[in-house]
Amino acid sequence: SEYNMEKENLSVVLHSQGDLRLEQRPIPEPGPNEVLLQMHSVGICGSDVHYWQNGRIGDFVVKKPMVLGHEAAGRVVKVGSAVKNLKEGDRVAVEPGVPREMDEFFKSGNYNLSPTIFFCATPPDDGNLCRFYKHSANFCYKLPDNVTYEEGALIEPLSVGIHACRRAGVTLGSSVLICGAGPIGLVCLLVAKAMGASQVVISDLSADRLVMAKELGADFPLTVKREDGPEELAKRVEGMLEAQPHITIECTGVESSVQTAIYATRPGGVVVLVGLGAAMTTIPLLNAALREVDIRGVFRYCNTWPMAIAMLASKKVNVAPLVTHRFPLEQAVQAFETTRQGQGVKIMLKCDKTDQNP
Question: What is the largest CA-CA distance in the chain?
């Protein structure tokens, strides 16, 4: 079919810490249960930048060249022999985590916790920041006509927000504090509001990010300074809401912010930890324990793509404003540099030469 005309598969490959290259890779051949996708839009995540700058995230270490990218949408150009759910020409969003075995986690519906899961752009698994990419057909989800490729790519960060809000128990009338107004804090805001949160406070060091948060529906933007004390900040949050929030979603990983999250949350409430900081973090554990504040972790997401597509198709959630910059795939290094400098919110790479539209 048409993709045979264009034999090149330009890919963004991290060779080692600091060594990011654009190089040609062979076009992969899909297996029986896979589809070959012509990638269209791929977002850059903080984790992609972190691997580039540091060569590792915790125990995940880049030991051999790895294609980056895991926030992706594209078009099916070839279908494996056993695939039933997709056909050539289908526009799809890609769920980057694919379980490799039917273990207890898979069976219980928590497949994100399976220790052997494949995950795009987590060493040693290649991501999809390239022109052509093959993926398990079961983890490619057809996009309705009224959902763009970029919105399809944004389902990945949106899924973190959905999973976090589910873990938090956000429901009609919840009051919520969100620490951090980067892309993940902002998707948590969007999802919390869509799930019925009545009041959302969102905090950040950057006033610019809080402008975006306000536009996306935050009730109370809270500009914080590095020197602010956690207990004092908790009091400020309580003052804004005239009560402590039921739920705090912590998206920074910064020790003082995790402390603020615990102090700020109402007795019997929930703190969800989304941001990743130091392996060892000092927190007021007794404060949480004596007030029955539950502290819950989040590892990526599971079972979120169908809900996310429904939310976008029904216009219950609008993620489009998150995209502030676009670069063609050829300018990937510049796009990564822009992300590293903290410019904009979400930076999108356009992988299809013939279609650079959203």
Answer: 66
The pLDDT of residue 154:
98
355/358 Cα distance (integer angstroms): 9
**C-alpha atoms less than 13 angstroms from C-alpha of 356 in its C-beta half-sphere:** 8
Q: At 289, is the pLDDT very low, low, confident or very high (cuts 50, 70, 90)?
A: very high
| Sequence-ordered strand ranges (E) for the chain | 10-16, 19-24, 34-43, 56-57, 60-61, 66-67, 71-79, 91-94, 97-98, 118-119, 132-136, 140-142, 175-179, 199-204, 220-223, 247-250, 270-273, 294-297, 323-328, 346-350
Average pLDDT of 248-274?
98
- Among residues of the chain, what percentage have pLDDT more than 90? 98
Strand partners, 75: 38, 91
List beta partners, residue 34: 136
Ramachandran assignment for 39, one of left (phi > 0), alpha (psi -120 to 50 degrees), beta (any other):
beta
Please count the other Cβ atoms lying within 10 Å of the Cβ belonging to residue 240.
17
Give tens-digit pLDDT for 297-338: 999 999 999 999 999 999 999 999 999 999 999 999 999 999
Which candidate, 172, 157, 155, places its Cα nearest to that of 306? 155
- Strand order from edge to edge, sheet including 270-273: 220-223, 199-204, 175-179, 247-250, 270-273, 294-297
If you search the block for the tokens 């980067």, which residue do you land on? 182
